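Before the break, one more example. Copy the sequence into your notebook; we will annotate it together after we see the structure.
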Amino acid sequence: MELEYDGEVVSKEEDVRWGSDEEADLKKMDFGLTVGAGIELNSLQMGLTYSLGLANISPYSENGYKISNRVLGISIGYKFGGK
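Here is what the structure looks like once it is written out:
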C-alpha cells in the first residue's frame, strides 16, 4: 500500500492473517448466493451477475460488527466460428 501525504510517499506491506481467533484479520470460510442473467446477440455475449456473501467473515463479533462480501460481475464475450 502506498500513501502520499504532504508530498511524502509512505509505503507499507502487511500480510492478511486468516483464522477465527482475535489475532486474525478475516475468517477463511465464506458462502453466499449468486444470481445472473445474460444475452446473446449474434456472436456477442453479455452477462451480469450479483453475488451476496451470507457469512460473517470478521473474527470480531462485538457490538454486531459484521463483514460480508458483495460482488457485481460484468462479462462480455465473442463467439468465434460457426453457430
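The first strand starts at residue 2 and ends at 5. Residues 2-78 form one domain. Try to locate both features in your own notes.
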